[in-house]
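testing teh design pipeline on a random one, pls ignore if ur not involved
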């Protein structure tokens, strides 16, 4: 159990949690920056969390839901007010309704996470400030303190697991819901370089090719919200050709881009894609959350070997960055 102390101050309306770990500050920070790791410990043991959005930058948001033993879900959100990599996070923390919208009937808290090096590893301190005594009493009665103890009691196993989240691992796809998939890979390169590789047509044509034997004759990039993009690929022998097009919906350079996507010539709705880039010790964690119009389409696309083609592209991108 890493928790050193849990204390409350009714006068200041705060709940403070202090925990010590036998790992570096960089390793501890990464556990919070990587949604794959964070969701392994943020929810209590019987209410595991799933993060459907996690862009840890000023003005960014995290969206998550926790699932109880009977399948009941409880949703929440964070808004990042300050981000000092390796040192400090300040955020608003609130509840959400079934549609993921902020639940105005429940209180919103302010949380500050501080990370510091110690002689034996690192220390984490969380200070939650409540808007009123009534809100503090309500959430403590709901089990907030016990929930935090249970959640943070799981982090030791995450910190010790280096292999699961290593940069050497290939593209992995995780089902987040009936219609959502999160595709993840650590790319050995800076966030700025990986962002550039997704926005410079000449560079994209060198790596965004899927399996060997394809070229990218059309690469029209959207650079402003509301603009459209169009990508087309052709087999080396010219016998096959396909492409995708869509619209840029959100842009927060250099860490987040949201687009629509549909195959050229196909009828019906396409997908909603959210790409997030986060710096880690080994490179840049690329997370792509894809929302499909149906579970059937999600399963059909995954069954085509999508992740294999993505891995070939990202491995090629990595080689481009390492060779630069």
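output:
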């Amino acid at each position: 159990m890493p928790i050193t102390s849990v204390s409350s101050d009714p006068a200041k309306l705060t709940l403070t949690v202090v925990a010590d770990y036998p790992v570096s500050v960089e390793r501890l920070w990464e556990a919070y920056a990587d949604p794959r790791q964070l969701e392994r410990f943020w929810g209590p043991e019987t209410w595991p969390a799933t993060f459907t959005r996690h862009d840890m930058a000023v003005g960014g948001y995290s969206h998550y839901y926790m699932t109880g033993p009977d399948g009941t879900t409880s949703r929440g959100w964070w808004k990042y007010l300050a981000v000092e990599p390796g040192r400090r996070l300040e955020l608003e923390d609130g509840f959400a309704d079934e549609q993921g919208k902020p639940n105005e009937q429940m209180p919103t808290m302010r949380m500050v996470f501080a990370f510091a090096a110690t002689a034996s590893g690192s220390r984490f301190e969380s200070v939650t400030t409540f808007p009123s005594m009534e809100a503090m009493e309500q959430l403590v009665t709901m089990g907030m303190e016990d929930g935090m103890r249970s959640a943070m009691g799981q982090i030791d196993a995450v910190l010790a697991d280096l292999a699961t989240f290593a940069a050497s691992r290939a593209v992995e796809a995780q089902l987040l819901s009936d219609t959502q998939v999160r595709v993840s890979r650590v790319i050995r390169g800076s966030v700025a370089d990986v962002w550039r590789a997704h926005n410079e047509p000449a560079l994209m044509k060198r790596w965004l090719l899927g399996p060997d034997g394809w070229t990218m004759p059309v690469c029209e990039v959207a650079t402003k919200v509301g603009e459209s993009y169009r990508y087309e690929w052709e087999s080396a022998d010219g016998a096959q050709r396909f492409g995708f097009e869509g619209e840029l919906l959100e842009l927060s350079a250099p860490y987040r881009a949201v687009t629509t996507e549909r195959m050229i010539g196909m009828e019906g709705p396409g997908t909603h894609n959210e790409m997030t880039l986060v710096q880690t010790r080994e490179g840049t964690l690329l997370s792509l959350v894809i929302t499909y119009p149906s579970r059937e389409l999600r399963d059909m696309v995954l069954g085509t070997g999508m992740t294999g083609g993505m891995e070939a592209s990202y491995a090629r991108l990595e080689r481009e960055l390492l060779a630069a």
